[in-house]
């Protein structure tokens, strides 16, 4: 059972105080046992749990907390607000900071990342909820070390150079990857201004099926500005997918009758049954799956011409990705 606070928080009767936790609400909160340290010297309160942690740990890892905790009113009984954090109350004689507007799971995840070295690392996969929490809390409160780890981690799945696309993998980023992860991550990346993530996230979302784009947009209540960027990208990627078929098989390229016939049939098969994620596959140099017998009928010169044309298209698409979504050019991301 959670003990009562050492002194009741004083609240004013002004309308500005209507969103503040009342004494009765505070007493209903439960301790998060694995984040309640008996030697802790500050208590964080969400709308679900209380966390007794250490001022020094927060201040050392977050410039926001460092500056906030240096204010003279932290731990006193007069309420004040700093950003989205209400402070000035106490709990069992320890300063109480109310994490106004923060999700309980976000506060828990960031504290776990600070206190348990096994919880999150750029060198092992994590879950999407943890990743989203760390982005939200890391950017909001400037946990610089956590943000550095995230930046290192995301390059495996969301590269900013074409060479890295060949080795692109999600397995080292997420424990369980789902294509729909991209839409959730895009929304949080936009909200938190994680610019380094945006080009590839927009590209991944736009390379989904139209039904997926519309369903995810509805489920996540994506802002119209984001949805419009995705839809414009979807149109461009669809055209690039067609271009890949043309440049791969060049059905009207003059050659022997058997070679030209084979390429025409390969092109027809490609357009009649367009492969999923064709443009993604091109960027990662994954070959188009085709009828082996038809492929054998294509001559060596046409194979080389096809490869060269596809490589030119690959570079063209890569360079166009940021501008597809009104995000500048890749040069803007070199220093990120």
TrEMBL record:
Region (Disordered): 1-20
Native source organism of the sequence: Schizopora paradoxa
Name assigned to this protein: BTB domain-containing protein
């Amino acid at each position: 059972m959670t003990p009562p606070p050492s002194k009741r928080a004083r609240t004013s009767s002004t309308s500005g105080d209507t969103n503040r936790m009342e004494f009765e609400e505070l007493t209903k909160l439960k301790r998060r046992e694995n984040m309640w340290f008996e030697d802790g010297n500050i208590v964080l309160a969400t709308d679900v749990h209380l966390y007794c942690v250490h001022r020094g740990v927060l201040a050392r890892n977050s410039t926001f907390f460092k500056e906030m905790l240096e204010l003279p009113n932290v731990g006193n009984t007069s309420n004040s607000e700093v950003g989205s954090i209400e402070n000035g109350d106490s709990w069992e004689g320890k300063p109480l900071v109310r994490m106004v507007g923060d999700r309980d799971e976000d506060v828990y995840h960031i504290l776990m990342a600070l206190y348990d070295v096994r919880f999150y690392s750029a060198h092992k996969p994590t879950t999407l909820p943890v990743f989203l929490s760390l982005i939200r809390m890391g950017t909001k409160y400037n946990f610089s070390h956590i943000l550095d780890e995230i930046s290192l981690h995301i390059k495996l799945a969301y590269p900013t150079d074409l060479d890295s696309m060949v080795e692109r993998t999600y397995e080292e980023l997420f424990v369980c990857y789902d294509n729909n992860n991209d839409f959730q991550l895009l929304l949080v990346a936009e909200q938190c201004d994680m610019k380094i993530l945006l080009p590839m996230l927009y590209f991944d979302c736009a390379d989904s099926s139209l039904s997926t784009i519309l369903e995810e947009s509805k489920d996540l209540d994506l802002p119209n500005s984001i949805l419009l960027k995705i839809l414009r990208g979807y149109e461009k990627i669809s055209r690039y997918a067609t271009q890949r078929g043309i440049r791969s098989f060049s059905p009207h390229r003059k050659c022997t009758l058997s070679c030209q016939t084979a390429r025409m049939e390969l092109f027809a098969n490609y357009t009649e049954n367009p492969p999923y994620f064709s443009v993604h596959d091109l960027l990662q140099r994954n070959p188009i799956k085709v009828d082996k017998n038809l492929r054998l009928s294509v001559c060596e010169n046409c194979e080389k011409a096809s490869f060269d044309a596809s490589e030119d298209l690959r570079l063209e698409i890569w360079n166009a990705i940021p501008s597809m979504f009104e995000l500048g050019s890749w040069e803007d991301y070199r220093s990120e």
